[in-house]
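Run log, item B.
One chain of 514 residues. Sequence copied directly from the ordering sheet:
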Amino acid sequence: MPLHDEHKPLLANRTFDSDEEVADFDSTEKVHIVGVDDADSEDWTKTPPFSWKKLWLFTGPGFLMSIAFLDPGNLEGDLQAGAIAGYSLLWLLFWATAMGLLIQLLSARLGVATGRHLAELCRDEYPKWARLLLWVMAELALIGSDIQEVIGSAIAIKILSNGAVPLWGGVVITACDCFVFLFLENFGVRKLEAVFAVLIATMAMSFAWMFVDTKPNGVELLLGILIPKLGSKTIQQAVGVVGCIIMPHNVFLHSALVQSREIDRRKIGRVQEAFNYYSIESTVALAISFVINLFVTTVFAAAFYGTDIASSIGLANAGQYLEEKYGGGLLPILYIWAIGLLAAGQSSTLTGTYAGQFIMGGFLNLRLKKWVRALITRSFAIVPTMIVALAFESSDDSLDVLNEWLNVLQSVQIPFALIPLLCLVSNEEIMGVFKIGTVLKMVSWLVAALLMLINGYLLLEFFSSEVNGWLFVSLVSVFTAAYVAFIIYLISRGITFSNCLGFLHPKGSTNSGN
């Protein structure tokens, strides 16, 4: 059903579905933006001039969002691409990040214009059975991502403790992150954002140090970024580079993070101003994430491309291979790698906890305290991760196989975040004048289609090599049929000539947005 009038953009007050939601909202410090309390005589259609001070006040949500581009799963994709394909896939890393930026800007646009996040809007727009299924898919994607992040942190802790803390011990330590998150949140959103900034800076310094130590070829690096090249032996790595960039839970997260700033939605100019600043901040944040991913890819390209061990390198043994290649020194490269990996794992598990709260609260509208929601969403990931850690403690190969399955799990979920997002930001009833225009709509759907095709290829390749036996094949076939049917349902529900796929009949579109 469509949103009621009180939920439409540009209205002064947000409505709440429960007393608990009011309590949660009131207990979260919002960053005050100069201009919210301006006089009513202000021209409500005029976008205020650019201000560095305001850009600083809006800075934060985009950097939290960018952490999903730097989680341990992404780092494993980077190192495998570098070791197997050398510098040849750097151009793809760049364009994958650009596609990720487009999706995240649409997510921010939705949150800024409506004052509600994607999970909340899905709860209103879809029937109960569909929204429950969307919630399950979002939770599965979050669990898969979180297992990778916790395992990455546990591997780093094991390295830094010289093996004194086993893998399962690192999982236990990382499990406490949700309580650290809740503790930090009590100090306000800006303090929390500062912690994430420190973790991103730690990653940047660690991987930059490795980049300098390994002395990659600058000319080949530049050519790798500028000249598209794709060989038959590197298709799997190419698919992995693109597939691990778009994280389903991150699409839900960014639309919620932008709620942390006060915006007067009665004034079109103020809403446009907020979106402009968020666009700048998100672009800078993802540019930094691209550089960090580039560091990791080029380090492993310089060290292992063309070697016999290139195809056997994974997250669990990468540090050991680096140590064997470059040895010790003032600060051994093994520990530099572990510090960067730990920062990536810890920051991404914290944002995963954050995303889990928004996803559960948005889809289910549960009357739960924040710490209870955090504990539940954390348990969904920690319990299976602990089982994995105990089962695969001494088996690096098993961890790599597990990571492949987790990548597949997240790839399966991508349409269930992208399709609702694109349909909602194309809906004039929901977005008002901030509904996206024909050109942006076409580009967005082309990007979404490309991402889904790439992940479809990944799934086909994976299941063709892993699925054996008539029973397993039958189950996969049934699952695939149901999966495709649900995707068709989501698209068909959003299709109207002036709505979700309005670019097919542009004359029917009344949108003035860009």
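Observations after the first pass:
- The domain at 5-508 is CATH 1.20.1740.10 (Amino acid/polyamine transporter I).
- Residues 138 and 249 are 6 Å apart (CA to CA).
Flagged for discussion on Thursday.
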